Amino acid sequence: MTYHRKWIERKNMPAHKVGRLWKFKKNQIDEWVEAGKAGLSPVNDSGRSPE
C-alpha cells in the first residue's frame, strides 16, 4: 500500500480514483494540509511511527 493511499483511507485525504490512478486537486490538498488534517507523523506498514 502506498503512503498516499494510507492518507486517503486513514486521514480522509481528498482524492478520487480514475481507473488505477488516484487524482488530486491541488487546491483541495492545500486546504486539507492548512486545516491540519494531514498530520506530520509518518506511518509504516505496521501502522506505527518509525523510530
Key phrases:
single chain, 51 residues, two-stranded antiparallel ribbon, 2 strands
Summary, kept brief:
By secondary structure, the protein is of the alpha+beta class. Helices cover about 35% and strands about 10% of the residues.
Q: What does this molecule look like?
A:
It is a single chain. A two-stranded antiparallel sheet has the order 1-2. Helix content is 33%, strand content 12%. It has helices at residues 3-10, 26-34; strands at 16-18, 21-23. 0% of the residues are buried. A hairpin with a 2-residue loop joins strand 1 and strand 2 (21-23). The chain contains two helices and two strands. The longest helix is centred in the middle third of the chain and has 9 residues, at 26-34. The chain has a domain at 3-34.
The succession of helices and strands, N to C, reads HEEH
**What's the helix count?**
2
β-strand number: 2
Distance, first to last CA: 20 Å
Oligomer: single chain
Shape designation: flat
What kind of sheet is the major sheet?
2 strands, antiparallel
Mean pLDDT: 78
Low-confidence stretches: none
Topology:
Blueprint: H1 3-10, E1 16-18, E2 21-23, H2 26-34
Antiparallel strand pairs: 1-2
